[in-house]
Amino acid sequence: MSDRKTLQTEQISGHPGPVPGMGMQRDLEVCKLIDTTTCIGCKACEVACVEWNDLPFQPTTFDNTYQTMPETNWNYWNLIKFREHVRDDGTLMWLMRKDQCMHCADPGCLAACPADGAIVKYANGIVDFQQENCIGCEFCISGCPFNIPKFNPATKKVYKCTLCSDRVGQGLEPACIKACPTGCLHFGTKEDMKLLAERRAKQLRDVSGFKDAGVYDPESVGGTHVIYVLHDAQNPELYAGLPKDPSIPFAYKAWKSIFKPLGLIAATLGFVGVVFHYVFEGPKREQPEVPPRRPEPPAGRREA
Amino acid sequence: MATSVGGMQEKEPQFFNKLGRTTVHEGELQRHSVYTRFLHWAYGIFFFLALLTGFAIYLPFLFRWFAPAFGGPANTRMLHPWFGLGFVFFFGLQAINWWGPMKWTDTDSRWIKHLPEFLRSAESLEPEEVGMYNGGQKLQFWEIVVGSIVYLITGIVMWAGARTFGAMLVAISYILHDISALIMLFGIFFHLYQATFGQPGTIQAMTRGTVSEAWAWTHAPAWFRQMTGRDPRQALEQERKRRADRERAIEQLSRGAGQGGGKT
User: What is the pLDDT of residues A62-80, one digit of tens each?
Assistant: First the structure.
């Protein structure tokens, strides 16, 4: 993705007119669109994710629903969350939401991370963990409003969905997209996906009778690079706790970027204070101390 | 052997007294037992280890170069909680040890009110009522007691992480842990200064365990009275007089002996 951008011709010597192909490169940002209204919960995406990323599987917890396990895990980055929802008219709905990293434009995990280079955000919007730089402090877990990063106690590193950055880097779609049989998963530029999502939401409102259908692309984290079409965009919490207004804790925003450095400067004033105390006031000696020189006491020196 | 000589209010476990000794020279008073000194340097070392590893995590932007000394960032993060536990453990023992002498009194409240004057070194002697520790020392002690409790609780929350305590508790702990660290860092500069450059003759209390009597009547007059039974101000006057007499005697001697070896 980035190669196509950087190697794009910008100027040509001795060439009349505009550079051919200039402006052909469209939106750099990629996006995954999940249409929860057409998801059948087949879990092909879960399997594709585990396969492509070569994740070891292990016994899971069955919780009497159509859900593979209660939460995403360090070795299970993509999970269809399942909820039964009784509507006001008494009819039942099965809500399936593919849960994975949202790839926020303003990532809370990245803000919280104290390790140099452990979390990166690419220009295409993908937020990626670099485990070789991870120090295992788990602050990213508390910085994430979607409860996505998961700790592996064996390696003491944190893992999550990469949006298949390795595939996307080669111009391929993420593995989950490729595996989806109903076409509820789409992948493309952010602009295109938003357009597609809005069109589908409008169709749901106008044709299918879901008056509150809409797109989930929360502004409070600067938008996400994984967006949902929901039957009821007013209540995203219905979809296994999708936060309506996801936010990054204060600790990792203003506190970390402003108050921490200021606090350190304030604490260092203690050092400055004692240095200048010694310079201006001098030590407090045991009494009786040797009296100041008799002939001419230096000006300004207080008598003991 | 809980309390022994005079005004010694510190524990003196047999084991530590066998391990080391405190030699009180002529003109000196024992200030700290071997046990107290051991604890002090134990948590002192852990404090700086925790501080340095903490710095690397606190502001990696500035201090990531501390991490290689501890085996890289991941090791630094792994060690920091253990250093912190070491600090809290040994300081906890010291807090028990010092609980009595650190009790806050009216004297200390008055001392705090006059802090600006003490900072200006307007008076070269501590007020006569000041005992083993002055208000400032007690304030710092209690700050560290409270700070250690905050460290311990918030530290454990962050150690077990959001998967145990939830994201919000970890985020709150993150801030409280920082504040505790900043206050303690601010305070440690005064502690180091007062023990060395600020009040010469102080650090030996924590190394050899003794201070000079002159130190005691200057910086801890009521403690001096407790230890020796003498009045601190009178003792100071006696010393002044003794020195004056000595000088006069030397002068007389040197006058009597002409220009000869009277100087010594």
Answer: 888 899 999 999 999 999 9
Q: Which of A110, A132, A142, A264 has the highest number of chain B CBs within 10 A, making it the mutation to test binding with B?
A: A142
**For residue B55, what is the nearest residue in chain A, using CA coordinates?**
A264
What mean pLDDT comes out for the span A230-253? 95
Residue A39 pLDDT more than 60? Answer: yes
Minimum Cα–Cα distance from B64: chain A residue: A116
pLDDT in tens, A157-214: 999 999 999 998 888 889 999 999 999 999 999 999 999 999 999 999 999 999 999 9
List, for residues B28-73, the tens digit of each pLDDT value: 999 999 999 999 999 999 999 999 999 999 998 899 899 999 999 9
Separation CA B208–CA B193 (nearest Å)? 19
Q: How many CB atoms lie within 10 A of CB A165?
A: 19
In a domain, B47, yes or no: yes
- pTM of the model as a whole: 0.88
Q: Does A304 touch chain B (CB under 8 A)?
A: yes
Number of structural domains found in chain B: 2
β-strands B28-30, A119-121 pairing: unpaired
- DSSP 3-state assignment of A151? strand
B73 and B175 fall within a common domain: yes
Q: Are residues B226 and B252 in the same domain?
A: no
Which of the two residues, B190 and A19, has the higher pLDDT score?
B190
CB B28 within 8 A of CB B213: yes
Residue B103's domain is classified under what CATH number?
Answer: 1.20.950.20
Q: Would you call B189 and A270 a contact, using CB atoms and an 8 Å cutoff?
A: yes
Spatial CB neighbours of A284, under 8 Å, sequence gap ≥ 6: B121, B124, B198, B199, B218, B219
Peptide linkage before A246 cis (omega within 30 of 0):
no
Q: Tell whether B96 is covered by a domain.
A: yes
Q: Tally C-beta pairs within 8 A across A and B.
A: 148
ipTM score for this prediction: 0.86
Do B222 and B247 lie in one domain? The reply is no
Helix B135-160 and helix B167-193, axial crossing angle in degrees, nearest 10:
150
Range of the domain at B54: 14-230
Q: Among partner residues A266, A284, A302, which is closest to B199 by beta-carbon distance?
A: A284
Phi first, then psi, for residue A127 (nearest 5°) are -100, 120
By Cβ distance, the residue of B77, B174, B182 closest to A251 is B174
CA angle A11, A12, A17 (to 5 degrees): 90
Q: List CB contacts (< 8 A) between A145 and chain B.
A: 167
CA-to-CA distance for B224 and B213, rounded, in angstroms? 7
Whether residue B213 lies inside any domain: the answer is: yes
